[in-house]
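Table 4 source record.
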Amino acid sequence: MRAAARRFGLIFAGVVGGTAVLSLLIGLAAGSSARRALSVGFYVAGATLLCGALVMGIRGPLRPEYRDDDGQRGRFFGPRTIRYVTPDERSQSNRSSLFLFALGILLVTAGGFIDPREHI
C-alpha cells in the first residue's frame, strides 16, 4: 500500500504541477489573475480526467484483435477478429477508471478552493 500511495502522490503532484504551470502561462498571457488562471486550469484538467474515467468505465467486454495468426500486425483496415477481455484486463480497466475519477474530483475540488469568485 505504501508503494501505491507513493505512486499516486507522484502522479497527483505531476498532474497538479503541470496543470498549474500550463494554466498560469496561458492565463497570464491572456491577462487573467493568477488565482483565476489556476482555478480554471484545475477545472479543465479535472473535467477532462472525469471524461476519461467515463470512457474507461463504459468500455464493453469485447476488444479488437489486431494480430494475424503468425503474430504479425494486422491489416490497415480494421481488426481481424474480436475477443473477450481477460479478467485481468477488466480489473485493470476498472481500476484505471476509478483512478481517473479520483484524480478528476481532486482537481475540480482544488479549483473550487482556489477560485477567487467563490467565498467559503
